[in-house]
Design a protein that fits this description.
The structure is a single chain. By secondary structure, the protein is mainly β. Among the domains are: 41 residues, no CATH class; 82 residues, HSP40/DNAj peptide-binding domain (Sandwich), CATH 2.60.260.20. Helix content is 12%, strand content 36%. Strands 11-12-18-15 form a four-stranded mixed sheet. The radius of gyration is 36 Å and the shape is elongated. The two termini are 65 Å apart. Pfam families: DnaJ_C, DnaJ_CXXCXGXG. It comes from Aquatica leii. One of its GO terms (molecular function) is zinc ion binding. It is a lipid-anchor.
């Protein structure tokens, strides 16, 4: 009984693809751009025309008989053997050998040489993170094989102002309390350096967390760049840290009256203290990790058991 792969070793008729990751900014995929990418690739040696040496100098490897593989047979047990294929150690899987004195001086018998290649990468408007740009047949060259492809994978960097969500762009717009109550005019700088003016008329109140949008000012559609998504604006109202006491009556006259409440006789007066929710969450997480280490006998110490009678 035989175990293992007994199929004959076959070479692929096509070389391996080469994958490169390229970082792009949100501005570049919004506007479109052309980037130049320099890389090193294998090309057929023009000195020996990919033979690796002089004409007639290439001989079949006698160890593997030109297959590039060696077969090892191991006895596993009674009537059971295992057949294992490994790369030939003499020709390193090439299936042929060249006498050192006949080797090509340019490629040293490797049949290929390294060459610098400049690719022009066209990043079209609306392309997305992870999208692939294909350069057919521009991969490494090998004798008797079709060259593979070069595949450029886009890596879209985070933007400090804009966030992309599909075809939409999202932006946070801060406004002061006076602007939220009395109206505002704001300028939004687009990814192609245009200025958009947004306006709220006096009397139109903007609440903290309000969301509005501008049509056709989002990301351009790939292959259809004249169609764009939405620009979504999330409003953040900035409140003042304090108000001058003399200004309070003026504000009270402008704003709706405060609701009146009845305070029970037995009600207790409390003091409000500042509280940072994020800091408290970090402190609690740190404490939980410390407690877990203690339970496991780590840095927090060993767990103590009560004595039993």
């Amino acid at each position: 009984m035989f175990f293992g792969d007994t199929r004959r070793h076959k070479r692929d008729h096509r070389g391996k693809d080469v994958v490169h990751q390229m970082s792009v900014s949100l501005e570049e995929v919004y506007r479109g751009t052309v980037r130049k990418l320099a890389l090193q690739k294998n090309v057929i040696c023009d000195k020996c025309e990919g033979r690796g040496g002089k004409k007639g100098a290439v001989e079949q490897c006698q160890t593997c008989r030109g297959t590039g593989m060696q077969v090892q047979i191991q006895q596993l047990g009674l009537g059971m053997i295992q057949q294992i294929q490994t790369i030939c150690s003499d020709c390193r899987g090439q299936g042929e050998r060249i006498n050192p004195k006949d080797r090509c001086k340019q490629c040293q018998g490797k049949k290929v040489v390294r060459e610098r290649k400049i690719l022009e990468v066209h990043v079209d408007k609306g392309m997305v993170d992870g999208q692939k740009i294909l350069f057919t047949g521009e991969g490494d060259q090998e004798p008797n094989l079709e060259p593979g492809d070069i595949i450029i994978v886009l890596d879209e960097k985070e933007h400090p102002v804009y966030k992309r969500s599909g075809g939409d762009l999202i932006i946070r717009q801060e406004i002061q309390l006076v602007e939220a109550l009395c109206g505002y005019q704001k300028i939004i700088k687009t990814l192609d350096d245009r200025d958009l003016v947004i306006t709220a008329i006096p009397g139109e109140v903007t609440k903290h967390g309000d969301v509005k949008c501008i049509l056709n000012e989002g990301m351009p559609q790939y292959k259809n760049p004249f169609e764009k998504g939405r620009l979504i604006i999330q409003f953040v109202v900035i409140f003042p840290n304090q108000i001058a006491p003399e200004s309070i009556p003026v504000l009270e006259n402008c704003l709706p009256p405060r609701p009146e409440i009845m305070i029970p006789d037995q009600a207790e007066e409390c003091t409000l203290l500042p509280f940072d929710l994020e800091q408290e969450s970090r402190r609690r997480d740190h404490k939980n990790v410390y407690d877990e280490d203690g339970d496991m006998g780590g840095p927090g110490g060993q767990r103590v058991q009560c004595a039993t009678n």
